[in-house]
C-alpha cells in the first residue's frame, strides 16, 4: 500500500523521466489521486495556478497537489503536500489565469477531475512547454 512516506517516490516512478510532459504527468497524477494512501481519511486534492514570485522571480505556477493530514496516535500532527509543479515565463495570457480549487468542494473525485480538465486555467498551460518542472513533497 502507498504510505505518505513513499508517496513521492511512488508517483515519480509512475511518471518516469519526462516530467516536462504536462499531459503525461496529469494522467499519472489523476490515477494516483484515486489510489488509497495508508491512514488517509479524505482525499484532499488541489489544483492551483497563478503568477507568483516564490522563487524571487515572477513566474506562472501550474500546480497539481495531493495533501495528506498526518495523525500520530489519533492526534493531529501536521500536513504534507505532494506537488507536481510546472513553471512558465508569464505571458499576457498566463498572467490572467489564477485559481485554487479543492476536491473537497465536489461530490466525488471524478467530478472534481473532470471539472479541472474543463477549466481554461488548465487547458491553456497544458499545451505549453514549462521552463522548469518539479515533483516534490513538503510539510506544510
Automatic annotation (TrEMBL):
Q: What is this protein called?
A: Uncharacterized protein
Amino acid at each position: 500500500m502507498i504510505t505518505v512516506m513513499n508517496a513521492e517516490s511512488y508517483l515519480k516512478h509512475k511518471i518516469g523521466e519526462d516530467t516536462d510532459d504536462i499531459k503525461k504527468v496529469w494522467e499519472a497524477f489523476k490515477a494516483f489521486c484515486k489510489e488509497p494512501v495508508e491512514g488517509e481519511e479524505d482525499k484532499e486534492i488541489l489544483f492551483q495556478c497563478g503568477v507568483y514570485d516564490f522563487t524571487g522571480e515572477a513566474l506562472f505556477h501550474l500546480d497539481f497537489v495531493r495533501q495528506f493530514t498526518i495523525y500520530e496516535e489519533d492526534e493531529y500532527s501536521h500536513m504534507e503536500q505532494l506537488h507536481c509543479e510546472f513553471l512558465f515565463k508569464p505571458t499576457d495570457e498566463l498572467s490572467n489565469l489564477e485559481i485554487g480549487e479543492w476536491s473537497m468542494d465536489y461530490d466525488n473525485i471524478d467530478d472534481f477531475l473532470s471539472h479541472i480538465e474543463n477549466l481554461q486555467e488548465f487547458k491553456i498551460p497544458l499545451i505549453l512547454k514549462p521552463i522548469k518542472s518539479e515533483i516534490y513533497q513538503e510539510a506544510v
